[in-house]
Amino acid sequence: MLGVVALNLGGPDSLAAVEPFLRNLFADPDLIQLGWWARPVQPLLARLIAHRRAAFSRSAYAQIGGRSPIRDESLAQVQAVIRAMAAAGVAAQPYLAMSYWHPFPAETAAAMRADGITRALLLPLYPHRSRTTSGSAFRTIEAALAGIATARVEGYATAPGYIEALCDRITEALGQLPELERATAPVLFSAHGLPVDYIRRGDPYLDDVRSTVAAVTRRLGLESRSQLAFQSRVGRQRWLAPTTEEALDALAAAGHRAVVLVPVSFTGEHLETLQEIDILYRERAAARGIISFARARAVGYHPAFISGLATLLVSTARDRDWV
Domain range holding 289? Predict the structure, then answer.
């Protein structure tokens, strides 16, 4: 039997889960790369950092209902992909494995074995390749699925369905602006940040994000209206720049009074979109004179995105002669 495992970050399902979720997050040596010398103490450091950040993070989650919607949305996405695969003549069972909260890879693997799954297609809900996201998720799920044949769908930064869905979301957001602003308003792509050292060591994330932004910019004819910035910085390392806050400040200083903000590296809604963008960045923009602020929705269940993922999965299965 064939299974499809959607891979995502995970998120706390209650305010009480915030601190243990953070502990799992900071303990991941692929995400927080302290070097081999720090591996033995990383779990201890993770507990310390999680404890220090817990109150701040609980407050942020409280602003979006006290929990992350990522599990429910990710599960609904993989279920939609399974239906699209079935329409193409390929039957499979949907599963979800989260990196830092339930269902963990071991839990998912146990369910798959109980269901008699012998082959698994691994689908990251991260469009852009990175050791910190898809790389970490592949490592843990493949270890959990030992004995079950697996095949990966790698990044899909410029896959047609993903690009079409992003373009539609941006067009929808532009339509929320005053009519006189729609043809000239900047379109600010906001990707999750990453330490510069990770990129220097060969992580492909930045190249993938830039490829997505370039493809969307060409398709929509945005030209110089298109800009890229990075959000969600943690710690004192040098991170990719400019930050989304800096980019918004610069746009306001240049006299812009309208902007569309696009969460380019997020395929679903999470704390980074619902709280960081919709609340913090919106307030910051307004305080600096940007009076029309539109946020493109994550691609979510957009038909082109779901269909595109199904196409990638079917192609991967056929390359292995599994269907």
Answer: 160-295
Q: pLDDT tens digits for 178-193?
A: 999 999 999 999 999 9
Give the three-state DSSP class for 296: coil
Q: Residue 284: inside a domain, yes or no?
A: yes
- Domain presence at residue 277: yes
CATH of the domain at 263: 3.40.50.1400
Residues 220 and 170: beta-carbon distance below 8 Å: yes
Please indicate, yes or no, if residue 205 is contained in any of the structural domains.
Answer: yes
Q: How many domains does the chain have?
A: 1
The answer to whether position 62 is within a domain reads no
Count CB neighbours of 145 within 10 A: 23
**C-alpha pair distances (Å), 193 with each of 130, 154, 159, 199:** 12, 20, 22, 11
Q: What is the DSSP string of 146-212?
A: TTSEEEE----TT-HHHHHHHHHHHHHHHTTS-GGGTTT--EEEEEE--BHHHHHTT--HHHHHHHH
For CA atoms 175, 178, 182, 186, the dihedral sign is negative
- What H or E segment, with its residue span, contains residue 295? strand 292-295
pTM greater than 0.90: yes
Alpha carbons 206 and 202: distance in angstroms, whole number? 10
Quote the Cα angle for 14-105-140, to 5°: 120
